[in-house]
Amino acid sequence: YNCVVSKIRSGDKTVSVMLPTGTGKSDLIRAIAIGLVKRSPLFSGVWAFSPSTQLRDQLASKDAGETLSRLGVLSTDFGGVSPFVAVDSLSTERFRNNAVLESFTTQFLTANGNVKLFIAAAKQLHRKTGIFPLVVIDESHLFSTDNVWGGAVEEMLVVGIPILLVTGTAFRSDRSKIPGFVTIPIDQADKRFVKTEKTNDPG
């Protein structure tokens, strides 16, 4: 948590976190939301995009209450309403005022040009508050510069929206680039061995 927050506070527009399954990625996302939205406002909110409804709902599940307890946060701090919301409909629950973290499925990001809506809403929040929301991409290895999800992330990066990439692996089996990263061969004789370095160039 401290490492991620330090990177974000230093001005990095893309920050990556690689944690194996079961080691607390959801907890980390919630903790960042509480720390950087509620306690020390650096963002106007956290929008998390997951590839499935199951992962989306996990961020706003009953286990989230345990996260609040560990962080010393009281439910009364949010009017007795959970600060973590799983969003089912853009038309009825889009960007609720009480939510610190809003959890969407990845399909929300790209369906019917919704990325334009998210970017417009982020710009509106920036004009109103002076700060952008933080966008979290869960299982970010599913995003690449060659697919529509990755393209949506690149559009957000161009605008200046900060992105947190969360995944259990830093590599794709098809060797496509994950947005915000560049792949560098370690051994020119064997291109199977590569490393990734973060870049603020969305291209």
Description:
This protein has 203 residues and is an alpha/beta fold. Helices cover 37% and strands 19% of the residues. It contains eight helices and eight strands. It has a six-stranded parallel sheet, with helices on both faces. The protein has a two-stranded antiparallel sheet with strand order 7-8. The protein starts with a helix and ends in a 5-residue tail after the last strand. The mean pLDDT is 78.
On the 0 to 100 scale, the average pLDDT is 78
In angstroms, what separates the terminal alpha carbons?
A: 28 Å
Low-confidence stretches: none
Radius of gyration: 17 Å
Strand order of the largest sheet: 1-6-5-2-4-3
- Approximate shape: globular
Number of helices: 8
Largest sheet: 6 strands, parallel
Which helices and strands occur, and which strands form pairs?
Elements: H1 2-9, E1 14-18, H2 25-39, E2 46-50, H3 53-59, H4 63-70, E3 84-86, H5 90-93, E4 101-105, H6 106-110, H7 114-129, E5 134-138, H8 148-159, E6 163-167, E7 181-185, E8 194-198
Parallel strand pairs: 1-6, 2-4, 2-5, 3-4, 5-6
Antiparallel strand pairs: 7-8
